[in-house]
From TrEMBL:
Domain annotation Transketolase-like pyrimidine-binding: ranges: 582-795
Name the UniProt record assigns to this protein: 2-oxoglutarate dehydrogenase-like, mitochondrial
Family matches, as PANTHER family: 2-OXOGLUTARATE DEHYDROGENASE, 2-OXOGLUTARATE DEHYDROGENASE-LIKE, MITOCHONDRIAL
Family to which this protein belongs: Belongs to the alpha-ketoglutarate dehydrogenase family.
Location of the region described as Disordered in the Swiss-Prot/TrEMBL record: 27-47
Presence of the UniProt keyword Magnesium in the record: yes
Catalytic activity: N(6)-[(R)-lipoyl]-L-lysyl-[protein] + 2-oxoglutarate + H(+) = N(6)-[(R)-S(8)-succinyldihydrolipoyl]-L-lysyl-[protein] + CO2
Role summary: 2-oxoglutarate dehydrogenase (E1-like) component of the 2-oxoglutarate dehydrogenase multienzyme complex (OGDHC) which mediates the decarboxylation of alpha-ketoglutarate in the tricarboxylic acid cycle. The OGDHC complex catalyzes the overall conversion of 2-oxoglutarate to succinyl-CoA and CO(2) while reducing NAD(+) to NADH. The OGDHC complex is mainly active in the mitochondrion. Involved in the inhibition of cell proliferation and in apoptosis.
Top class in the EC scheme: oxidoreductase
Organism whose genome encodes this protein: Oryctolagus cuniculus (Rabbit)
Name of the gene encoding the protein in the UniProt record: OGDHL
GO biological process: glycolytic process; tricarboxylic acid cycle
Cell compartment(s), UniProt: Mitochondrion matrix
Gene Ontology cellular component annotations, sorted alphabetically: mitochondrial matrix; oxoglutarate dehydrogenase complex
Length: 954
């Protein structure tokens, strides 16, 4: 009786509970004083206790906040070990507990539970039956909400979606599987477990971050893919941490086993460029037939470092791009699956950032299936010390994603839940979370000793029967398979592994390129031959520039009212176009527009990029009279142009930069740019920069053409937002400061091919125009870091003539002196090298001192890879001049530590390169305007004091 009645009050819900809270008659002890039952209510079937019970029951049925649906998951049997509370709370609410005394208090007897009730249309527990006894109602609700599946969905503010979930789980018999389905599930469990066992036998002392304790994840992922394929999905992009990655590669992506096994051989050396990465970080792309649906499916597992959730936005960006290029606006063909660890899912802020991209128009991927491998531990940290929320999955509630908790030792429950999750995603195009509550049979890795920190937990784990044996015993007992069939399945897969192990000894098979997660077919070759390692001129015909200028200065839509201040900006653009000049904003317009004409998709993303942080861009015009009516003139340039996407992002750097990096990963024929609101905001995206942008090609042979636009410049506005920290990017550049280069006719392109990224600080709109176009015209892809200006956006001298952008012109890595000093180089006493905005301060100061013939100023537009050849030419051009590097940044920041040793190398240490700039400091700029001006005057004085370095040695 106790087992059946344990959750009776959970039927009552809030409204019925209020009825029970006010007794209708006085009571003493556990019996009513009156011998008469409560009066019958009008219209009830009968009187007394039955009518009172009926009233409470219908109050519960009418209450949409039924306690079973809301909190049944709190008492569900989710932990396979049976020792922990999956929700970090051992307290069970009183409305989920009953006792004999409480039943007696209300004079309810076991016989009352056999009363029959008409079921309302809002519940599905009856199936084809319209009436059920109260006893059966309790049993079915407990079976649905309080067993091996715990459902969280009643917070969703959409009645249709809640009813959909209820139907999927409340309908009787939904978790019944055919014999064939059970045999398939068993076979998948065999592959999952025996793969881990094989690796443990062959490489017992190697880290592999195995899946032991959550082997069911393999059939879980395969079920999601099968169901999605059945619903029309053709491309699935996965992201996951390192635990279980090798198993996923082998049994989900179907990577050749010998390619995996050869990664364990320390004697084999990769034949590719780059440093490579550990095997459990690598990615993969594979197209194959889905055997369940007999349809083609493309699977991509994105490479990921040990920064566990860093891959989340990358996967989303890649998915969005694949959807965009396929014209799959609703996500019917391409989808993403993200696998998480429980501690990381709760602890990493990028998870929250990524969830908040899920429904933004320019970032949505139309729903992601999230699978949480809930080890109930993070490295060595107990969940109670790792999070403050009841579940690790609570972050998903912010986007109304349903959360399905499931005991990972119940394979059939897992498979059903995953099937529903896939159907949810492809029905409602919204995120969904599957929480696989499992355990980690070994320590954090195979070399770790978990008994140090979780002794009781691991005593239970050592006693735990593996899920494969439990499920096999179940199927054998029910006659679905025989013991012999089970053993043959194991022997069959073991034989496959042994044969692959033998092939893995071949030294010819170890190639990092076999692990590409984003191959670009045809990009690196033309008609089967490698592309020429040259870069064509980046200029365009003048009529193209003029046409773009005309559109940039107009409103293509009729009856569209723009702001009066914007009218002045457009008139200014039209005036510049007539005068054949361009400022920074117009040059960017022309770079983008000319690429769109050539069929190159351009995507610009970041905080406030539509208008521009400094109100200079205005790529999206807003009608001042009609709410939310906008116009993007860039999409009205040419009849058959490529599309232009410009989108303000959420207030996120880590998540959004990761997203754009993933977007750029999908295709080489797109210019993808992320602009920081201010350059120093890249600090909060440093993980993406360090782990993906800087090192992606070296670790994963992954070319990527992402462009980072980082506003930079000392304007006397304080330490925040002044510096984009160029020293950090330069310090991570891989060109050798001590290696004297071999110059050739293709030196520029070969340098770019060998570098890990390009770092530039353009001083003219023309340079900016060319470097953006060069990014696409190069025969390969490299990340491009551009320190963009603030004050130069409107500086009267920071304009470029069309002559510097027309056909035949190209990006100048170094812009030499072209004034009086260049005409008499032998008379020049000082040659100042600089980059970016400080050039204009130097020119103004030189003019004021009348030193145009004695001081030459040369600009580095590209800083890394270092233009050794052009610097050598410039230095030799002025043989009698002192060489000075001048920067506005402090000495321990900026560029000096990068350029100084390279100057020494190219000059054979025969001439010093003197530093002029601000003294070393902790903060990147002063917060006092007067102090800023004093320090500026001081270093300009030094720059033009021609006796400043006399008598000094280097």
């Amino acid at each position: 009786m106790m087992s059946r009645l344990r959750l009776l009050p959970s039927l009552l819900g809030a409204q019925a509970a209020r009825l029970l809270a006010t007794p209708r008659v006085q009571v003493s002890s556990c019996r009513r004083r009156s011998s008469e039952p409560p009066a019958a209510s009008p219209g009830s079937r009968g009187g007394g206790v039955s009518s009172y019970m009926e009233e409470m029951y219908f109050a519960w049925l009418e209450d949409p906040q039924s306690v079973h649906k809301i909190r049944g998951h709190h008492v569900a049997q989710l932990d396979p070990l049976g020792i922990l509370d999956a929700d970090l709370d051992s307290f069970v609410p009183s409305d989920l507990i009953t006792t004999i005394d409480k039943l007696a208090f209300y004079d309810l007897r076991e016989s009352d539970l056999d009363k029959e009730f008409q079921l309302p249309t809002t519940t599905f527990i009856g199936g084809s039956e319209s009436t059920l006894s109260l006893r059966e109602i309790i049993r079915r609700l407990e079976s649905t909400y309080c067993q091996h599946v715990g459902l969280e969905f009643m917070f969703i503010n959409d009645a249709e979606q809640c009813q959909w979930i209820r139907q999927k789980f409340e309908t009787p018999g939904v978790m019944r599987f055919s014999s064939e389905e059970k045999r398939t599930l068993l076979a998948r469990l065999v592959r999952s477990m025996r793969f881990e066992d094989f690796l443990a036998r062959k490489w017992s002392s190697e880290k592999r971050f195995g899946l032991e304790g959550c082997e069911v994840m393999i059939p879980a992922l395969k079920t999601i893919i099968d169901k999605s394929s059945e619903m029309g999905i053709e491309n699935v992009i996965l992201g996951m941490p390192h635990r279980g990655r090798l198993n996923v590669l082998a049994n989900v992506i179907r990577k050749d086993l010998e390619q995996i096994f050869c990664q364990f051989d320390p004697k084999l050396e990769a034949a590719d460029e780059g440093s490579g990465d550990v095997k459990y970080h690598l990615g993969m792309y594979h197209e194959r037939i889905n055997r369940v649906t007999n349809r083609n499916i493309a699977l991509s597992l994105v490479a990921n470092p040990s920064h566990l959730e860093a891959v989340d936005p990358v996967v989303q960006g890649k998915t969005k791009a694949e959807q965009f290029y396929r014209g799959d606006a609703q996500g019917r063909k391409v989808m993403s699956i993200l696998v998480h660890g429980d501690a990381a899912f709760a602890g990493q802020g990028v998870v929250y950032e990524t969830f908040h991209l899920s429904d933004l128009p320019s970032y949505t991927t139309n729903g992601t299936v999230h699978v949480v491998v809930n080890n109930q531990i993070g490295f060595t940290t107990d969940p109670r010390m790792a999070r403050s929320s009841p579940y690790p999955t609570d972050v998903a509630r912010v986007v109304n994603a349903p959360i399905f908790h499931v005991n990972a030792d119940d394979p059939e429950a897992v498979i059903y839940v995953c099937s529903v999750a896939a159907e949810w995603r492809n029905t409602f195009n919204k995120d969904v979370v599957v929480d696989l509550v499992c355990y980690r049979r070994r320590g954090h890795n195979e070399m770790d000793e978990p008994m140090f920190t979780q002794p009781l937990m691991y005593k239970q784990i050592h006693r735990q029967v593996p899920v494969l044996k439990k499920y096999a015993d179940k199927l054998i007992a029910e006659g679905t398979v025989t013991l012999q069939e089970f053993e043959e399945e194991i022997a069959k897969y073991d034989r496959i592994c042994e044969e692959a192990y033998g092939r893995s000894k071949d030294k010819k098979i170890l190639h990092i390129k076999h692990w590409l997660d984003s191959p670009w077919p045809g990009f690196f070759n033309v008609d089967g031959e490698p592309k020429s390692m040259t870069c064509p001129a980046t200029g365009v015909p003048e009529d193209v520039l003029t046409h773009i200028g005309g559109v940039a200065s107009s409103v293509p839509l009729e009856d569209f009212t723009i702001h009066t201040g914007l009218s002045r900006i457009l008139r200014g653009r039209a005036d510049m176009t007539r005068k054949r000049t361009a400022d920074w904003a117009l040059a960017e317009y022309m770079a983008f527009g000319s690429l769109l004409k050539e069929g190159i998709h351009v995507r610009l993303s970041g905080q406030d990029v539509e208008r521009g942080t400094f109100s200079h861009r205005h790529h999206v015009l807003h009608d001042q009279e009609v709410d939310r009516r906008t116009c993007v003139p860039m999409n009205h340039l040419w009849p058959d142009q490529a599309p232009y996407t410009v989108c303000n992002s959420s207030l996120s750097e880590y998540g959004v930069l990761g997203f754009e990096l993933g977007y750029a990963m999908a295709s080489p024929n797109a210019l993808v740019l992320w602009e920081a609101q201010f350059g120093d905001f890249h600090n909060t995206a440093q993980c993406i920069i360090d782990q993906f942008v800087s090192t992606g090609q070296a670790k994963w042979v992954r070319h990527n053409g992402i462009v980072l636009l980082l506003p930079h410049g000392m304007e006397g506005m304080g330490p925040e937002h002044s510096s984009a920290r160029p020293e950090r990017f330069l310090q991570m550049s891989n060109d050798d400061s001590d290696a004297y280069p071999v110059f050739s006719k293709d030196f520029e392109v070969s340098q770019l091919y060998d570098c890990n990224w390009i770092v530039a600080n353009c001083s003219t709109p023309a340079s900016y125009f060319h470097v953006l176009r060069r990014q696409i015209l190069l025969p390969f892809r490299k990340p491009l870091i551009i320190f963009t200006p603030k004050s130069l956006l409107r500086h009267p001298d920071a304009k470029s003539s069309f002559d510097q952008m027309v056909s035949g012109t190209s990006f100048q890595r170094v812009i030499p002196e072209d004034g009086a000093a260049a005409r008499a180089p032998g008379q020049v006493r000082r040659l100042i090298f600089c980059t970016g905005k400080v050039y204009y301060d130097l020119v103004k100061e030189r003019s004021g001192r009348g030193l145009e013939e004695q001081v030459a100023i040369t600009r580095l537009e590209q800083i890394s890879p270092f233009p050794f050849d052009l610097i050598k030419q410039e230095a030799e051009r002025y043989p009698g001049a002192e060489l000075v590097w001048c920067q506005e940044e402090h000495k321990n920041m900026g560029y000096y530590d990068y350029i100084s040793p390279r100057f020494m190398t190219i000059l054979g240490r025969t001439r010093p390169i003197w530093y002029v700039g601000r003294d070393p400091a902790a903060a990147p700029a002063t917060g006092n305007r007067n102090t800023h001006l004093v320090s500026l005057k001081k270093f300009l004085d030094t720059a033009f004091n021609l006796q400043a370095f006399e008598g000094k040695t280097f």
